[in-house]
């Protein structure tokens, strides 16, 4: 804050605001160029059956092959992508590549992330099915990951969408479960295939500093049990976390312990092994 000397706070604040606004505009322009150049690709991270250790599927995770800044994770640009609406275009580019990989890679399912706004858009299901057909990929091997927000905003519409997708064999998972505004009372009305336990809770498992994590994970797994659906522990980094999840009845796991997100060729080799 030494820079502030001689100037008042509001001036500095204005300057910072302007700099941030400029940065966001630049990023948005960059994103538009990258969409035209098709500079995005999915990386794949394995999801394992916790009981057997077998890889049952992969999550497709968006990366931006930025010419200067290298493969960028979504955290670097998703905010701008969502505010500008550009994320939908990015998503379609990544989904198409994920479906092409799915058609070549014959094992297990592939799950894709769908932002709430995108999930609510018209013709989402039709376009997804068309793209799967064009890629020669089976709908029944696709899963979509949505967050609780996608269900709550317009519940009747979300329900229709989920039913349409499920009638074609596409299951939905609730991502980052436990971090949103969980309306437990009507979760059972939606055809949800599995809950993904947010990595913030998994990170605290077996950790004396975060004893509440165990209680939360236990509660989420009890809920999944009551609903009769599967569960995926996210962000599993240690054997101890995997063991606790397994012991609590969590059916699947995902995290650096089992494999990091990787570009397609490496993931294909792993799948073939
Ligand atoms: P998510 O769907 O919850 O994905 C899990 C995130 O956790 C990924 O971050 C993954 O790389 C990271 N992760 C996996 N295992 C571990 C672990 O053991 N430890 C730690 N610390 N992290 C782990 P990533 O790839 O940066 O993606 C962040 C978020 O961006 C995703 O969270 C998802 O919400 C969103 N996203 C990813 N791909 C897409 C996409 O194609 N479209 C849209 N709209 N959003 C996407
Ligand atoms: Mg996800
Ligand atoms: Mg998640
Ligand atoms: Mg997340």
UniProtKB/TrEMBL annotation:
Name of the protein described by the UniProt record:
Bifunctional diguanylate cyclase/phosphodiesterase
From the entire protein, which fragment is shown? Answer: 694 to 966 of 966
EAL domain location is 24-273
> Taxonomically, which superkingdom?
Bacteria
Q: Give the organism, scientific name.
A: Luteimonas terricola
């Amino acid at each position: 804050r030494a820079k502030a000397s001689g100037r008042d706070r509001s001036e500095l604040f204005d300057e910072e605001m302007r700099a941030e606004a400029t940065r966001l505009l630049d990023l948005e322009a960059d994103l538009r160029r990258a969409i035209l150049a098709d500079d995005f690709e999915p990386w794949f991270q394995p999801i394992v059956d916790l009981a057997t250790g077998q890889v049952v599927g992969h999550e497709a995770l968006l990366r931006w092959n930025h010419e200067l800044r290298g493969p960028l994770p979504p955290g670097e640009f998703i905010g701008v992508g969502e505010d500008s609406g550009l994320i939908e275009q990015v998503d379609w580019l990544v989904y198409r590549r994920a479906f092409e990989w799915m058609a070549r890679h014959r094992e297990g399912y592939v799950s894709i992330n769908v932002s709430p706004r995108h999930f609510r858009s018209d013709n989402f299901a039709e376009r997804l099915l068309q793209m799967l057909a064009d890629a020669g990929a089976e709908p029944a091997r696709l899963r979509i990951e949505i967050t609780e927000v996608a269900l709550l905003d317009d519940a009747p519409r979300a329900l229709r969408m989920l039913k349409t997708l499920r009638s074609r064999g596409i299951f939905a998972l609730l991502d980052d479960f436990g971090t949103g505004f969980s309306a437990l009372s009507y979760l059972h009305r939606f055809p949800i295939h599995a809950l993904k336990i947010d990595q913030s809770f998994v990170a605290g498992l077996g950790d004396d500093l975060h004893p509440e994590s165990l209680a939360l994970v236990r509660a989420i797994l009890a809920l999944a049990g009551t609903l009769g659906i599967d569960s995926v522990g996210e962000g599993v980094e240690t054997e101890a976390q995997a063991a606790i999840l397994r012991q609590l009845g969590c059916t699947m796991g995902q995290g650096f312990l089992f494999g990091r997100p990787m570009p397609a060729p490496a993931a294909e080799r792993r799948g073939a092994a």
